[in-house]
Automatic annotation (TrEMBL):
PANTHER family: COPROPORPHYRINIGEN III OXIDASE, RADICAL S-ADENOSYL METHIONINE DOMAIN-CONTAINING PROTEIN 1, MITOCHONDRIAL. InterPro entries: Coproporphyrinogen-III_oxidase (IPR034505), Elp3/MiaA/NifB-like_rSAM (IPR006638), rSAM (IPR007197). Residues 28-253 form the Radical SAM core domain. This is Heme chaperone HemW. It comes from Clostridium frigoriphilum.
Length: 415
């Protein structure tokens, strides 16, 4: 209910947000801050808690997938008259290291089509981390790593349906390999996970060498197969407060609603970009006017690209206000948003487009204004924590659920 009410108020429209099969291949950008995301969909085991698009690893599919992925990169790169400057590159999945021997070719294709002189990040499943794999990952050009630990505790991993691996040893290996950014992903809100268990995991991650810890609330997606459900709202609130308090105690900065980092370190963040291009099945692209979503089916993705077609399955066309709202929502995740950056993108001041909303936010003590920036208060940060989970349940869950069932939907109406 709250997301529907907010959508009507913020968009100033009763029309639902909607993905349609009316695909527009234009890739026009209103930002010089363009990111790239590359999706590798293979996993050795399919963890029930994980909502992302993945399939069981099949060695026979690796080469056809690599070929299709490089072809998609070349097709999209060919849409521009000159190379676009790229300010961030992230590989996620799935388990990208399952294509370790192919990653170098994929990066070569990216550099052929885009001007890349930035750090390159990769998500790693603990089972794929060895001294040998880390040496190869570094030699390919990756210098930022995110490790999907979720918890160091056997009981928590059992609850999530994740096979136990010595996560502490894996983080030690990554630190010894000398990556400049080491992110450790943890989940909070797991059944029987008290503050003592979460605090132990949080402290352990930093002690072992993490420069950043990303802590995500356990969200039960409708198509997941979780036997044990997440903890309730109040229990999650206590755990989030525990994380905030502990981060202050050890001198970390809170760099996003669910992310904490050592002072002065480079952030690992694959979602907060003004614009981005996604490659691979289920990958999303954000342009000046559109949000584009590739087909989720790996088989259909390969078939489509082999026919010389860009594998976009659905497009959401933005109004100017909706595009600005998208920017505002994801920038708020980083705890602040800047008027100068907004004006550079949209040509108007924040207060001109969102005067009423900003004043209400300040009146309710969700926001405070400091010079040209709006900063989320402690109350505002918790409100965002609640809102993002609602957004995930109503919008992301529905669009991903429908896209998983039908590789080429006619439309997906999002409330």
């Amino acid at each position: 209910m709250i997301t529907s009410i907010l959508r009507v108020i913020l968009t100033r429209s009763f029309k639902p947000l909607m993905f349609t099969s009316k695909v527009d291949y234009k890739m026009e950008f209103d930002s010089n801050e363009i990111g790239i995301y590359v999706h590798i969909p293979f996993c050795k085991t399919l963890c029930p808690f994980c909502p992302y698009n993945k399939i069981k690893y099949d060695e026979s599919m690796i080469n056809p997938y690599k070929t299709a992925l490089i072809d998609e990169i070349n097709m999209v790169g060919g849409l521009y008259g000159r190379k676009k400057v790229i300010t961030s590159v992230y590989f996620g999945g799935g388990s990208p290291a399952l294509m370790l021997n192919e990653l170098g070719e994929i990066i070569t294709a990216l550099k052929k089509n885009f001007n890349i002189s930035t750090s390159i990040g990769i998500e790693l499943h603990p089972s794929d981390i060895t001294k040998e794999s880390l040496l190869k990952i570094k030699s390919i050009g990756f210098d930022m790593v995110s490790i999907g630990i979720q918890s160091f505790q056997l009981e928590c991993l059992n609850t999530l349906g994740r096979e136990y691996i010595d996560g502490a040893e894996k983080v030690r290996l990554v630190k010894a390999a000398g990556f400049k950014t080491i992110d450790v992903d943890l989940i909070f809100g797991i059944a029987n996970q008290g503050e003592d268990i979460l605090k132990k995991d949080f402290l352990m991650a930093f002690e072992l060498g993490a420069t950043q810890v990303s802590t995500y609330p356990f969200i039960d997606f409708s198509y997941a197969n979780n036997i044990r459900k997440p903890l309730g709202k109040q229990e999650k609130k206590r755990l989030l407060n525990c994380l905030e308090k502990t981060s202050i105690e050890i001198g970390c900065d809170r760099t996003a609603v669910w992310t904490f980092a050592k002072k002065g370190t480079i952030r690992y963040s694959s979602i907060t970009r003004d614009a981005f291009i996604g490659f691979g099945p289920s990958a999303t692209s954000l342009t000046k006017e559109f949000l584009k979503l590739n087909t989720f089916s790996v088989e259909e993705y390969i078939k489509c690209v082999n026919k010389g077609k860009i594998p976009t399955a659905m497009t959401m066309k933005f109004s100017e206000r909706n595009r600005a709202l998208y920017w505002l929502f994801w920038n708020a995740y980083t705890l602040k948003f800047n008027d100068d950056e907004f004006k550079k993108l949209f040509g108007v001041n924040l207060e001109k487009m969102f005067k009423i909303e900003l004043r209400i936010g300040i009146a309710l003590r969700l926001l405070t204004k400091v010079e040209n920036s709006y900063i989320l208060t402690k109350k505002g940060t918790y409100f965002y924590h609640l809102l993002e989970q609602k957004y995930t349940n109503r919008y992301i869950d529905k669009s991903w659920r429908e896209a998983r069932k039908n590789p080429w939907p006619n439309e997906i109406r999002l409330y």
